[in-house]
Amino acid sequence: MSRSETIALVVEEIERATVKWKGWPSDPVHAAGVVSEEAGELMQAAMNHTYMWKDKRNMLTEAIHTAAMAIRFIEAYQAGHYDKRPDSLPEIAKK
């Protein structure tokens, strides 16, 4: 698979995910959590393939999901979504 084909798969996933989940977290902690959750699923797929010899296509799927969510994070960052502190922070975080 070429790089352009790989990028096309990621772009397709971004579009699919944006339709399915319209919103995106307005704070970087929760947004990073989305990226981390996908990265965790990639790790699980890699472990399943390595140690249980499960289908390696699951790794590709989860890598695409991780890349797509990382790009959504970057897009929100570049749009300035994380420039101000959220109003709903716990008191300890406001100090």
Please describe what this structure looks like.
The structure is a single chain. The protein has 95 residues and is mostly helical. It has one domain (3-82). It contains 3 helices and no strands. The chain has helices at residues 3-20, 28-52, 57-78.
Distance between the termini: 50 Å
The total of beta strands comes to: 0
Mean pLDDT figure: 91
Q: State the helical fraction.
A: 55-70%
Task: Report the total helices.
Answer: 3
Helix-and-strand structural type = mainly alpha
Low-confidence stretches: none
Largest pleated sheet: none
Beta-strand percent range: under 5%
Q: How many structural domains can be distinguished in the coordinates?
A: 1
Helix-strand sequence: HHH
Report the C-alpha radius of gyration, rounded. 16 Å
Q: Judging from the principal axes of the Cα atoms, what is the shape?
A: globular
Layout of SSEs?
Elements: H1 3-20, H2 28-52, H3 57-78
Q: What's the quick description here?
A:
This protein has helices at residues 3-20, 28-52, 57-78.
Keywords:
mainly alpha, 3 helices, globular, about 100 residues
